[in-house]
Write a sequence for this structure.
DNA sequence: TCCTTTCGTATTTTT
DNA sequence: TACGAAAGGA
């Protein structure tokens, strides 16, 4: 407790009612949450299994678990819930699945699955507007986030497109039910609706969760907020931590106004402000403060630190994006040698993913190791989807979506014609496609050959399913992957041997993760079965875990969005131009405030130095465009900025200097 | 079924 | 310009 400042202490000690902690960037909010959990357990005598801490990402929840584990030793922390919103929702649905009418082992549809399902539904109804699939998917998701059901969506529809989307929404939900599946949004929506409708169930959960802590509160959407409100009830055992200035996810349904709403919903709300920053120099913070002052505020806050004033912020103007990338590469090489530090101390942040390409190229040329955040997530890789498809069907034979993915993979000579007939037969009989495979009525519609193929497949799968619940399930699954000779299939479908090897490594990693997940679940609950583990696995992004093992002295490349929550000694914020940051679409739609927060997030990632770069000309859609410096540059304190290449003349000199430094450094290294 | 060509489009992304 | 998706041909 002695390591906390007075504000932080106040936030930890206040347990008499609902509390809002407005935690500025780098103000030690994770410390506050973890210490508060320790305080609740050790001093307030609240049992760990009555406390839940909720985050948005797996990464955040993993970090929090780790830090609580260090503070609260031994069995006292047993039963503590630290999880993502979605994982909490999943747990609630699992526990209440009977009441909700789900069979155990229900599937979770990710965005891709949902997209495929919507497309399929529209094709089945002979709807022409297949180009609207993405729009409709997005609309359905926002409706779900706003707790609007298909009926109300239809009533509220403003135009024919929305009407169509509402109709698709209804059949989409029916299909999910038929498949014994839920989508990501349902993981929050379904428990929330259940709580609204069944006060007895709500009370049960309120008795279980007596104190709730929520991280990154500004990122909650309407259904998440309602879930929190219902769970907390009148008891008021609630601490939320958030920062309205770091709200950068409004475009995907986050409601930063939920922060202000708390005041209305909990009149006794206490507000604590954390303004001391432990990360950045005061020059960086001054710039951040001055920038964000241009946004309207519900809560005024000003960050300060005792880290010294530090270097001025550099602003480097380059001729074009090529020069920008080169300049940064040279700068990193030069600084690393001069400051005797590591590649991992540097981060390059940008607005759009495409901006990383040129940078990557120049880093490669200069042999600077780098790590790209984001990219395709582990679960969207084809090989992972394939095996997950098998696992899904194994634990939930009703999942037609997964069934269709794997039925002909590897080739089983079951073509589209057969599948179409099977599908319509299954729909007619109101059974899943897998179930339909074994039915006798198929003789009427299918050739003997096609039927034999289907039989063969369904028998085999049924056998695997049974063995899964009798013997060591992981061994059974490994055998299954050998049975289908997935390895041969992979090698056949890859361009290079290396690619195939990587894919098989991913498959191996998937199975290992499944095993670890199962073991972890069985520690808490010896009855846990393979279906628990598979469902759980769907919510974990293993890419993060995987990357941690690799050697990590690399320059970090990241979008501004993905950089939230992280920090680096030296940050380059590139592309400080109008139309890029703020992005042109945001300017048009008047969302500049969120773009400003995005810039704010970027600036506050930096600990020691911050370098802002821009170009005079940039290629846009193949055309060379004269750029305008970002308005955000004008909003920074001029006296703390050091410009390079602002006048056209000295920029040439700059470049020459950069080249010279670079080549002399190269010689030096040889 | 695979490969080529053409066409359209062009933030941010977690679960 | 540069990519991915969809369509068309072998």
């Amino acid at each position: 407790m002695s390591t906390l400042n007075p504000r932080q202490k106040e936030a930890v000690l206040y347990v008499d009612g609902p509390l809002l902690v407005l935690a500025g960037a780098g103000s030690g909010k994770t410390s506050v949450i973890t210490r508060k959990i320790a305080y609740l357990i050790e001093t307030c005598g609240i049992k760990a299994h009555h406390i839940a801490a909720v985050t948005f990402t797996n990464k955040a929840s993993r970090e929090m678990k780790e830090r609580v584990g260090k503070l609260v030793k031994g069995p006292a922390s047993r039963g503590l819930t630290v999880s993502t919103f979605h994982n909490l929702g999943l747990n609630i649905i699992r526990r209440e699945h009977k009441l909700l009418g789900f069979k155990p082992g229900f599937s979770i549809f990710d965005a891709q699955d949902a997209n495929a399902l919507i497309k399929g539904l529209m094709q089945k109804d002979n709807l022409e507007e297949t180009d609207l699939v993405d729009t409709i998917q997005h609309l359905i998701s926002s409706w779900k986030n706003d707790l609007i059901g298909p009926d109300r969506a239809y009533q509220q529809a403003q135009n024919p497109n929305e009407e169509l989307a509402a109709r698709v929404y209804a059949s989409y939900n029916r299909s999910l039910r038929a498949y014994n599946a839920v989508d990501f949004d349902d993981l929050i929506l379904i428990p929330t609706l259940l709580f609204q409708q069944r006060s007895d169930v709500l009370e049960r959960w309120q008795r279980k969760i007596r104190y709730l802590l929520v991280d990154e509160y500004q990122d909650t959407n309407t259904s998440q907020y309602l879930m929190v409100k219902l769970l907390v009830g009148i008891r008021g055992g609630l601490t939320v931590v958030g920062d309205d200035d770091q709200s950068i996810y409004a475009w995907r349904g986050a409601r930063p106004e939920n922060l202000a709403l708390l005041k209305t919903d909990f009149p006794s709300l206490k507000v604590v402000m954390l303004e001391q920053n432990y990360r950045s120099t005061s020059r960086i913070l001054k710039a951040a403060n001055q920038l964000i002052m241009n946004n309207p505020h519900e809560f005024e806050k000003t960050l300060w630190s005792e880290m010294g004033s530090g270097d001025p912020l550099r602003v480097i103007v380059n001729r074009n994006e090529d020069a920008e990338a080169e300049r940064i590469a040279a700068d990193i090489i030069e600084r690393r040698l001069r400051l005797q530090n590591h590649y991992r101390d540097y981060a390059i942040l940008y607005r759009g993913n495409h901006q990383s390409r040129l940078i990557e190229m120049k880093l490669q040329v200069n042999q600077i190791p780098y790590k790209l955040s984001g990219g395709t997530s582990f679960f969207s890789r084809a090989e992972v989807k394939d095996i997950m498809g098998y696992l899904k069907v194994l634990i939930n034979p009703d999942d037609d979506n997964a069934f269709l993915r794997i039925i002909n993979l590897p080739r089983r000579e079951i073509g589209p014609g057969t599948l179409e007939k099977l599908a319509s037969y299954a729909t007619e009989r109101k059974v899943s496609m897998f179930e339909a495979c074994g039915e006798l009525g198929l003789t009427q519609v299918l050739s003997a050959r096609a039927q034999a193929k289907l039989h063969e497949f369904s028998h085999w799968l049924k056998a695997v399913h049974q063995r899964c619940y009798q013997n060591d399930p992981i061994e059974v699954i490994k055998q299954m992957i050998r049975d289908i000779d997935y390895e041969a299939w992979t090698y056949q479908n890859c361009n290079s041997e290396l690619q195939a090897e990587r894919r098989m490594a991913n498959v191996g990693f998937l199975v290992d993760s499944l095993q670890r997940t199962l073991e972890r679940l069985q520690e808490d609950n010896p009855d846990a079965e393979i279906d628990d583990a598979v469902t759980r696995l769907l919510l974990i992004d293993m890419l993060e875990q995987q990357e941690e093992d690799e050697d990590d002295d690399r320059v970090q490349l990241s979008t501004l969005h993905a950089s939230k929550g992280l920090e680096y000694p030296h940050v380059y914020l590139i592309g400080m131009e109008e139309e890029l940051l703020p992005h042109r679409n945001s300017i048009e739609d008047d969302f500049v405030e969120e773009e400003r927060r995005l810039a704010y997030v970027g600036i506050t990632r930096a600990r020691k130095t911050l370098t802002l770069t821009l170009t005079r000309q940039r290629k846009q859609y193949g055309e060379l465009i004269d750029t305008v410096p970002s308005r955000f540059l004008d909003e920074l304190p001029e006296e703390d900025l050091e410009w390079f290449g602002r006048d056209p003349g000295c920029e040439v000199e700059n470049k020459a200097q950069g080249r010279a430094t670079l080549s002399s450094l190269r010689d030096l290294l040889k």
Q: What stands out?
A: Chain A has a mean pLDDT of 87. Residues 334 and 340 of chain A are 10 Å apart (CA to CA). Residues 497-524 of chain A form the longest helix (28 residues). Residues 354, 619-623 of chain A lie near DNA strand C (CB under 10 Å from a C1').
